[in-house]
Specification:
By secondary structure, the protein is mainly β. The protein is built from five helices and 35 strands. Among the domains are: about 180 residues, Methylamine Dehydrogenase, Chain H (7 Propeller), CATH 2.130.10.10; about 55 residues. The strands form nine sheets. A four-stranded antiparallel beta sheet has the order 3-4-5-6, with no helix packed on it. A four-stranded antiparallel beta sheet has the order 7-8-9-10, with no helix packed on it. Strands 11-12-13-14 form a four-stranded antiparallel beta sheet, with no helix packed on it. The protein starts with 6 loop residues before the first strand and ends with a helix. About 5% of the residues have low confidence.
Length: about 575
Amino acid sequence: MATPVPLLAVRGSDGTSLLCGPPSCKEHAAFPREGVPSRCLTFSRDGSLFAWCNGQVVRVVKTSDGSLVATFDLPKTTLLQFSPLGSILVTWQPYTKSPQVAQGDANLQLWELSSGGLVKAFFQKKVDMWCPSWSEDEKMAVRSVNNELHFFEDNDFNAIANKLHVQKVSNFELSPGSQPSKVAVYVPGSKGAPSFVRLYQYPALSGSSASLANKSFFKADGVSMLWNKKASAVLVTASTEVDKSGASYYGEQTLHYLAVNGETALVQLPKNGPIYDTAWSPNSCEFCVVYGFMPAKATIFNLKCDPVFDFGTGPRNAAYYSPQGHILVLAGFGNLRGQMEVWDVKKYKQVSKPQSPDTTYFSWCPDGEHVVTATCTPRLRVSNGYKIWHYTGSVLHEWNAPAGSELWEVRWQSFLDGILPMRPVKFQAPPSQLGSTQAPPTQAYRPPSLRHLPATAGSKLHEEEPPQNQRPADKNLSKAALKNLRKREARKAAKQETKPEPDLPSDDLAPVANSQPEPSCGDPETDKKIKNVKKKLKAIEELKEQQASGKALQKNQLEKMQKEEQLLEELKELQLGH
């Protein structure tokens, strides 16, 4: 049986189309481009069905031959999603009220695809957590209603099978996989009480011993929760909107680990700063975190939250594992220049370093061989288009939106696990007429006041840190020694974060220690006066150097410099007098 070629759905102001994936990169013969702009689109979990709303109707077709499965008269639909087995299509449109119906119309609707009939309609005003979450076998589903979780069984949405009675649940995440399903719930803190995340296994939702794990923490205005594929552990990124220390405008973030066996931990990150991204490996045994003030660090941790490999620092804010888990892409998108680092995570060897500026969207193809990068509206309204790459850096297909048109979304067709096998990692880029875009070597930023001076180690703004297997000091260390080194770095960073820095006057320069003893004149009082005068002269010399480098000095610092002659005369008198 031939390996299937994934499709790429493209949605923009010029219409909607399905593109056959590499190597052909041509439009799907069974799905001609629809010139009417679409509001939304989605694939079923196994990729056999494709649905979209063109502002007039919602259509569902088979991806194999384009044959029509169902049509729904829902012109205002803006969100679509299939249930895991593709038996139900969920549609959502903005909630509105009318003079005829004061309560408004139920805007969340569940449709049975086999009959085309309405299963259930709900009122769902918020976009957050708009769609019910199913177990993969559709035996159970859950949705959030007024800070409470309602559970349904066997797609019977007319009867609530169970409820989770935890006060003010503001967020939840259902585990992947089939039964028994677990659910992670977040309850924000109030009146001095901490926030907490708890894990439950359905249907054991009540009782003092019902929770599988519990982690409480302060400093959390919100959380994001990420299960691994085996549903054995969840990562919780707790964040505040404002960093009260003033160190970052990203707010503050902490990363917590919870396992279904009850183990919990705070993940110790060796560098202070924001947490940009976390990603589980598909093997569910390790995860990658991108964190720290720029240039950001990236580190892989195991299930004990111990560092396994440190990628050093670089311009990055995102991490993407391939669907098969054998390749990791570290990327810097958004306000960064689009540099990507492609790594073989079994050998910890870098494969390529392509660059895709202005990228607003990145996604792995299900085959684990290709990726797509796109610049979409409304994130960026210029240079709209997309590229299909081989992970070695070769550009295999490129499309740029014509003048006056916009690209809104691209999405790969999804596949079930195991359909597309893992292939050996390649280090040689396949030939391409479009070539490849390798990131140029970057130079450290130097402030204008230092640009006329020769570049020295002392004038670096940031200290670049290579990956751990490229550091001279680390090459001869054993795995146990490296592990202990990472732990010491993490403890040191934690101490620096909590230790308050002493307040020093801005014009008071710290004395420089001198290894050579000062010559003595025999009189301790005179020695003390000579030492104080020399200290002041040393400070004036440093102020002169700052002025020469272009730094604007304060008024009191300029007044200090004017006393140099007077101090020199005083020093001469003290030394001659004894």
